[in-house]
Task: structure prediction
Amino acid sequence: MLSTPHKPHSHGPRSHGLWEATAPAAPATTALDGHVSAEVVIVGGGYTGMSCALHLAEAGCRVVLLEAREIGFGGAGRNVGLINAGLWLAPDDVSSALGPDHGERLLKLLGDAPAAVMALIDRHGIDCELERNGTLHCAVGASGLAEIREREAQWQKRGAPVKLLDATETAARLGTSAYLGALHDARAGTLQPLAYARGLATAVVKAGVTLHTSSPVTKAERKDNRWHLTTSGGSVDADWVVVATDAYSTGPWQMVRTEQVHLPYFNLATKPLSPELLRKILPGREGVWDTKTVLSSFRMDRAGRLVFGSVGALRYSGTAIHKAWARRALSRLYPDLGDIAFEHEWYGQIGMTGDALPRLHTFGPNAVGFSGYNGRGIAPGTVFGRELALLIKGEKTYAELPLPVSDVTPAPFRRSREAWYEAGAQIAHLV
Ligand SMILES: Cc1cc2nc3c(=O)[nH]c(=O)nc-3n(C[C@H](O)[C@H](O)[C@H](O)COP(=O)(O)OP(=O)(O)OC[C@H]3O[C@@H](n4cnc5c(N)ncnc54)[C@H](O)[C@@H]3O)c2cc1C
Result:
């Protein structure tokens, strides 16, 4: 039941919005108090950390997971919930940036990643509003149509079940004729992101992981060939450290954050639509986004709320500007919605890397992590966590992972670019 009472998240309605209001409870957890030893200590309670923890614990490994705030505090509890296959970059661009070996390995892993998420959800009976009907990448104008046509060719060459829908079929799927076509990706789907994170946490605890929340790691030292991590209330020593803190990194691995430029992204959720509107608007419940640079996305939740999002932060002058724009944009797409109220509003920060590719970093012997998901973290985080488990169990080498190990490279002019993203989104949404 999604309405199970739960303890409030440690942050406000503008950070986790609808997802906080409708996710089942997280397992009961406490802060780390005292000293514990483990084989592996995982830092970060999002998809990457919890998938890694689960796959290690299922193989009999002793794991401690430390989360600074609550499960799903980072991107995992704030996102749109699109279980995408692949990255923002078109497949051929991934292959030329990484070379054919890593490039094609990464594309294969990420192309199959939504199926891995769905299998994990099924295996652990996670109640997270999973919809398996794919996603629709919608073409705005002739250049948008050319872009998705090219993506279709590049994915089909790799055997992926993607199909370009013409304007008529797109209109039938969406209930609006605003787009010239759409690329349907049958591998993909949608879910309730915080419910998925909390469901993973429940599975992690059942598998025997010691999971502590409200336990920010503040110090990491290597002594006697082991890692020693310190939190406000305790410490952990372990053979391995997995750094799974990504765009919300604090403490010893803040450098991961300095490599990324934060792109703010907001979502607004309507009240549940009437049965008549639900028959017209997105009846197949696919996840949708468009080809614009300042893009829009939309999807349904299980109760039939339309969740509509775009680039921008709901703070300062941004709140009024983005909400007024969203109302105008929605009524252009769906005039039948009239003046429908928004029940929930929230936003988060997407960590963008310079080349739009994720990163694999090491932070000393036996200290490793993936980061830099560029707004594609549900499926990638889940399978990257599993890859790290394989590495730690000795079933894969670094050379067999989907990305080469790279150094952390701070993004130039990060703060000013972040300010520009926030201001630029407001300018775009004034018209
Ligand atoms: C608004 C928004 C929309 C998005 N939409 C989508 C989407 O539709 N589809 C998609 O696939 N992806 C989407 N993403 C991206 C996705 O949410 C992230 O890529 C994903 O959450 C990354 O997972 P993660 O586990 O690596 O990191 P996170 O989920 O960010 O978790 C990291 C955790 O580490 C913890 N942490 C940080 N520092 C410390 C410390 N020192 N000690 C202990 N814990 C620490 C944080 O509190 C946090 O809980 C979106 C992101 C945002 C913000």
Observations:
- Confidence is low (pLDDT under 50) at residues 1-9.
- The longest strand covers residues 342-352.
- The two ends are 41 Å apart (CA to CA).
- DSSP finds twelve helices and 18 strands in the chain.
